[in-house]
Amino acid sequence: MWSCVGKRFQRLNQRHYALICKAPCVQQLCSSSSEFTDSCYNGLYPGHIPTTPIQKALLAVGSGVAALQDPYRHDMVAVLGETTGHLALINLRDRMRNDPEGYTILIERPRIRLSTLDLSKMASLPDGSFGREYLRFLEDNHVTPDTRADVKFVDDEELAYVMQRYREVHDLLHTLLGMPTNMLGEVAVKWFEAAQTGLPMCALGAVLGPLRLNARRLQSLFTSLGPWALQNGRRARCVLSVFYERRWEQSLEDLREELNIKPPPVIVAASNKRST
Amino acid sequence: MAASMRLLVKRVIRLSHGNFNATAAGVSGRSGCCWGTTSCCCFSDDRSTHFGFETVPEAEKAKRVYKVFENVAQKYDIMNDAMSLGIHRLWKDSLLHVMNPQPGAQLLDVAGGTGDIAFRFLEYVRSQQERQRRRSARSMQTPSWQDISNNYSTEDEERPQESRAVVCDINKEMLKVGKQKGDSMGISAGLSWVVGDAEELPFDDDQFDIYTIAFGIRNVTHIDQALQEALRILKPGGRFLCLEFSKVTNPVLARLYDAYSFQMIPVLGEVIAGDWKSYQYLVESIHKFPDQEAFKHMIEDAGFYCVQYYNFTGGVVAIHSGFKL
């Protein structure tokens, strides 16, 4: 009697066990199943969707077309980045591993979210410090770090983290480079990122972004901002290898020098409306 | 009290994954009865069903299906066109041709969501009415005085019953989208939108001439209950029609179809609607649905007569039809 009961229990458990083995997030499974988030259903990390090479290719093409048609579809830009960035991510991960601070980041896996930032403390920092300037950037441009989509289609858990880190560091890059979130500022940051990371999505954005700029901004981009961004991108230290969360008190100038980034040649004003 | 006890035991079971050997005896001892069998009264709601390829408790399935359709409602029609390359319109047209409704028919479209079948029904019935009117006008080209006076007297008395279409869906978002579509198309006469569960319809017995369910029955948790409800609300002589994905008969086409549905459709879902998982569920639920013969037997078991099915596009979809006698 006990053996048959045990066997049924075992079968039931094996189903659950298989689920747990696949995704190391027992916490979510144990919580109320009425809000069963299927992020732990299948995959290497929460939110992972395993895909075949054909599906990746289709996704890359589809998301590319969708992103070109509507550049405000950030989720499509994200998917494009994930499906095309495999080699670049491996490169980035190796660079991070070779750098002591980058290695720490890969081990500790910090996430930049409103919940992990101590905003009041950052607001109390002196002007010119990295934390204060970052906060100012967030306020001036009305953005928050919580709008980054989660990585879904990268089939390696460490590379997925590198991709996620890249997305979350994007805003910090804006601060470091002194670029606002209007079209010109975004294109400048994309040029920097393309030179730094080699991600195909950045390169695509760098090439196609200028198509939406007016003549005056285009001129500014090609004569001063563009070359500056490219040069700095090539020379700078790997920006993903910097543990920003521990450097809020550091002065911005200091940090720029450490990373080998020259301040922008032109002050680009943050405008409230999205202008081209 | 019993419900909370069940919840507590469920949580205990989940928490005991790590050391199931130790607790196996403990939990089964606590429950007393044969814990493993699903017919045990204590665990009656732990009966599980399929949600795509996943196995979930029955109580969960309805909730998850609701969530899926809530997410996809806005892009539902666009996605249908993209996934089937527009062929779903032909399938729905075929359903209307098989149905061949006459003016005055009362239709209940369950899981009707965005209203495709109901709109087609009203159009069809309208064109049938036009045809009838034209036919009677043509045959009455040379009326006698007697005929003309007869016509005048009967005109006011005999008003044929207007056809009516009721769209019933459990999901409010889908109905909202459908209503907007109806308003923009200018179709509102003879159309109503009702929130209801296919397993428990909010209508009296013997109300409708035709019951349709297009691409909805595979999402129902208890298909047999839905079929019984269909039987209940139909008038004697009423017809049950179901348009649903089915098994492809040709093996080569079946391979191609599988490859297309599993590779392409979730990608389309991600690119167009930004929702991979819902369309993954859709493809998996198609595969879990019984084939033409099995579903025919289910309909017969519910009490319908003269059950037939018609395959379309090589068996990709099938229309099942049955009568209540």
Automatic annotation (TrEMBL), chain A:
<dbReference type="InterPro" id="IPR007715">
    <property type="entry name" value="Coq4"/>
</dbReference>
<keyword id="KW-0479">Metal-binding</keyword>
<feature type="binding site">
    <location>
        <position position="186"/>
    </location>
    <ligand>
        <name>Zn(2+)</name>
    </ligand>
</feature>
<feature type="binding site">
    <location>
        <position position="170"/>
    </location>
    <ligand>
        <name>Zn(2+)</name>
    </ligand>
</feature>
<dbReference type="GO" id="GO:0008270">
    <property type="term" value="F:zinc ion binding"/>
</dbReference>
<keyword id="KW-0456">Lyase</keyword>
<keyword id="KW-0830">Ubiquinone</keyword>
<keyword id="KW-0831">Ubiquinone biosynthesis</keyword>
<protein>
    <recommendedName>
        <fullName>Ubiquinone biosynthesis protein COQ4 homolog, mitochondrial</fullName>
        <ecNumber>4.1.1.130</ecNumber>
    </recommendedName>
</protein>
<comment type="subunit">
    <text>Component of a multi-subunit COQ enzyme complex, composed of at least COQ3, COQ4, COQ5, COQ6, COQ7 and COQ9.</text>
</comment>
<comment type="pathway">
    <text>Cofactor biosynthesis; ubiquinone biosynthesis.</text>
</comment>
<keyword id="KW-0496">Mitochondrion</keyword>
<feature type="binding site">
    <location>
        <position position="174"/>
    </location>
    <ligand>
        <name>Zn(2+)</name>
    </ligand>
</feature>
<dbReference type="GO" id="GO:0120539">
    <property type="term" value="F:4-hydroxy-3-methoxy-5-polyprenylbenzoate decarboxylase activity"/>
</dbReference>
<dbReference type="Pfam" id="PF05019">
    <property type="entry name" value="Coq4"/>
</dbReference>
<dbReference type="InterPro" id="IPR027540">
    <property type="entry name" value="Coq4_euk"/>
</dbReference>
<keyword id="KW-0999">Mitochondrion inner membrane</keyword>
<keyword id="KW-0862">Zinc</keyword>
<feature type="binding site">
    <location>
        <position position="171"/>
    </location>
    <ligand>
        <name>Zn(2+)</name>
    </ligand>
</feature>
<keyword id="KW-0472">Membrane</keyword>
<comment type="similarity">
    <text>Belongs to the COQ4 family.</text>
</comment>
<comment type="function">
    <text>Lyase that catalyzes the C1-decarboxylation of 4-hydroxy-3-methoxy-5-(all-trans-polyprenyl)benzoic acid into 2-methoxy-6-(all-trans-polyprenyl)phenol during ubiquinone biosynthesis.</text>
</comment>
From TrEMBL, chain B:
<feature type="region of interest" description="Disordered">
    <location>
        <begin position="132"/>
        <end position="163"/>
    </location>
</feature>
<dbReference type="InterPro" id="IPR029063">
    <property type="entry name" value="SAM-dependent_MTases_sf"/>
</dbReference>
<comment type="function">
    <text>Methyltransferase required for the conversion of 2-decaprenyl-6-methoxy-1,4-benzoquinol (DDMQH2) to 2-decaprenyl-3-methyl-6-methoxy-1,4-benzoquinol (DMQH2).</text>
</comment>
<feature type="binding site">
    <location>
        <position position="114"/>
    </location>
    <ligand>
        <name>S-adenosyl-L-methionine</name>
    </ligand>
</feature>
<keyword id="KW-0949">S-adenosyl-L-methionine</keyword>
<keyword id="KW-0489">Methyltransferase</keyword>
<comment type="function">
    <text>Methyltransferase required for the conversion of 2-polyprenyl-6-methoxy-1,4-benzoquinol (DDMQH2) to 2-polyprenyl-3-methyl-6-methoxy-1,4-benzoquinol (DMQH2).</text>
</comment>
<dbReference type="InterPro" id="IPR023576">
    <property type="entry name" value="UbiE/COQ5_MeTrFase_CS"/>
</dbReference>
<dbReference type="Pfam" id="PF01209">
    <property type="entry name" value="Ubie_methyltran"/>
</dbReference>
<dbReference type="GO" id="GO:0031314">
    <property type="term" value="C:extrinsic component of mitochondrial inner membrane"/>
</dbReference>
<keyword id="KW-0496">Mitochondrion</keyword>
<dbReference type="InterPro" id="IPR004033">
    <property type="entry name" value="UbiE/COQ5_MeTrFase"/>
</dbReference>
<comment type="pathway">
    <text>Cofactor biosynthesis; ubiquinone biosynthesis.</text>
</comment>
<keyword id="KW-0831">Ubiquinone biosynthesis</keyword>
<dbReference type="GO" id="GO:0008425">
    <property type="term" value="F:2-methoxy-6-polyprenyl-1,4-benzoquinol methyltransferase activity"/>
</dbReference>
<protein>
    <recommendedName>
        <fullName>2-methoxy-6-polyprenyl-1,4-benzoquinol methylase, mitochondrial</fullName>
        <ecNumber>2.1.1.201</ecNumber>
    </recommendedName>
</protein>
<comment type="subunit">
    <text>Component of a multi-subunit COQ enzyme complex, composed of at least COQ3, COQ4, COQ5, COQ6, COQ7 and COQ9. Interacts with PYURF; the interaction is direct, stabilizes COQ5 protein and associates PYURF with COQ enzyme complex.</text>
</comment>
<keyword id="KW-0808">Transferase</keyword>
<feature type="binding site">
    <location>
        <position position="169"/>
    </location>
    <ligand>
        <name>S-adenosyl-L-methionine</name>
    </ligand>
</feature>
<feature type="binding site">
    <location>
        <begin position="197"/>
        <end position="198"/>
    </location>
    <ligand>
        <name>S-adenosyl-L-methionine</name>
    </ligand>
</feature>
<comment type="similarity">
    <text>Belongs to the class I-like SAM-binding methyltransferase superfamily. MenG/UbiE family.</text>
</comment>
<keyword id="KW-0999">Mitochondrion inner membrane</keyword>
